[in-house]
């Protein structure tokens, strides 16, 4: 690895770890460029030499807290016998974790972070490869996808091979389930509904199961 690349990654980590400390100690609302730079021991101008905008620093820092979720996904998927069951279980795991930490999952999966967001996932896991060292090899490509629709596509594609759904139904299932989750997360984030994380998970999963298991009754794309 070139010295320039090594230095760049080292500097990235200084700022990312500083931002992660602020999130952990003060919360997302307290993050500013100046605070991150001061905590890392540099000035704001130096930070901008390595990051295009604040949202990128927040994204990378948020990823430092995602490992409990990625570890749990593996456990959930092992409970399913078919791809459809695994798809539903994957959503249940996401709901469980995201509804308990809505700001964190919004920062990673929904916040505007500019062009080519998937490349940020690749860059993160290049620097912090230990975060996915125990993750199944066949599922690692999914981790580089920010879009929930793209993340679910591979499982639904396998479900068509198993004869459980038809290929033209993949898009409908993916879009509807993603919209249900996204809507609930936004409601929790904005405190629009007085639901506990468990209640929100139960409600979301009821809709997702109805969508997936009753797809043939839906008229979309038919």
UniProtKB/TrEMBL annotation:
Location of the HTH tetR-type domain: 9-69
InterPro entries: Homeodomain-like_sf, HTH-type_Tx_Regulator, HTH_TetR
Top-level taxon in the UniProt lineage: Bacteria
SUPFAM superfamilies xrefs: Homeodomain-like
Annotated keywords: DNA-binding, Repressor
Stored Pfam families: TetR_N (PF00440)
Taxonomic placement: Bacteria, Bacillati, Bacillota, Bacilli, Bacillales
PANTHER family documented for this protein: ACREF/ENVCD OPERON REPRESSOR-RELATED, ACREF_ENVCD OPERON REPRESSOR-RELATED
Keyword DNA-binding: yes
Official protein name in the record: TetR/AcrR family transcriptional regulator
DNA-binding positions: 32-51
PROSITE patterns according to UniProt: HTH_TETR_2
């Amino acid at each position: 690895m070139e010295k320039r690349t090594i230095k760049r990654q080292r500097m990235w980590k200084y700022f990312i770890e500083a931002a992660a400390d602020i999130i952990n100690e003060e919360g997302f609302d307290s993050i500013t460029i100046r605070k991150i730079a001061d905590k890392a021991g540099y000035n704001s101008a130096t930070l901008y030499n390595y990051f295009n905008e604040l949202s990128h620093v927040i994204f990378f820092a948020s990823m430092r807290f995602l490992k409990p979720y990625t570890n749990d996904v593996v456990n959930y998927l092992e409970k399913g016998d078919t791809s459809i069951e695994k798809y539903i279980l994957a959503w249940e795991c996401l709901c469980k974790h995201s509804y308990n930490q809505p700001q964190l999952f919004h920062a990673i999966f929904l916040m505007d972070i500019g062009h080519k967001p998937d490349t940020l996932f690749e860059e993160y896991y290049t620097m912090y490869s230990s975060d996915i060292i125990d993750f199944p090899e066949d599922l690692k490509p999914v981790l580089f996808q920010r879009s929930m629709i793209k993340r679910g596509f591979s499982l639904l594609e396998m479900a068509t091979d198993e004869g459980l759904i038809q290929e033209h139904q993949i898009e409908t299932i993916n879009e509807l389930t993603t919209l249900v989750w996204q809507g609930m997360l936004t409601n929790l984030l904005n405190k629009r509904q007085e639901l506990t994380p468990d209640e929100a998970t139960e409600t979301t999963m009821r809709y997702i199961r109805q969508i997936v298991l009753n797809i043939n009754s839906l008229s979309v794309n038919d």
